[in-house]
Amino acid sequence: MSFNLANRSLAERAMIEDEKARLYELWQANLGKAKADAARLIGEKAKRKGRWAEWVRGELDGMSPPEYANMVRAEVNKLMAAAR
Hints:
Elements: H1 10-43, H2 45-48, H3 52-61, H4 66-83
Helix pairs in contact: 1-4
């Protein structure tokens, strides 16, 4: 399967570009909030101890839209990596 946009129809390319623009706007508008949510989740680690990872998964599953949950997940992973 080729991902070369030149092999796609004009309509397909336009849809792909529209989706990229939508995701970029979502990222720009929500990055600060995602970082704050990630910090909140990390802040619960000491309190929740061994159940923390399970709790975080539940919190992330409850976030909407899924793209935002992925942003928060990425920020949690960055904070965890920086803490090591």
